[in-house]
Amino acid sequence: MNKKQVIIAVIFLLLAIALGALGAHGLKSLISAKKIASFEVGVRYQIYIGLLLLILGFNNDKFQFSIKWISSLLIAGAILFSGSIYLLSFEELTTINLKFLGPITPLGGSLMIVGLGIFVYKLVKR
Fold this sequence. Notes:
Layout: H1 3-26, H2 33-58, H3 68-89, H4 104-125
């Protein structure tokens, strides 16, 4: 087991659940339905990556290769992807133009895809 990775995964899941509750109950009167839907996409992907990191962390010893890079790409990707979506969702509440964050979302998604691609490659290669 990779204790550090499991802790990160649980933090991801804890934050995703808290943010999901905020989106479901606290934001409805503050931001548009379109922004809430985007916010929920960020929460969903954060949960997906959190669960994947939890599985990888608990099974770390079973792989005949290091999953450090894979985990790092998944973590960075989820932070960029979900984090940029969260911030863009709150744009209506601020006077700050956050449109510059738009390109960060697909960058985060790309990092998650690359991490998963490397994982598949290493599994097939073994």
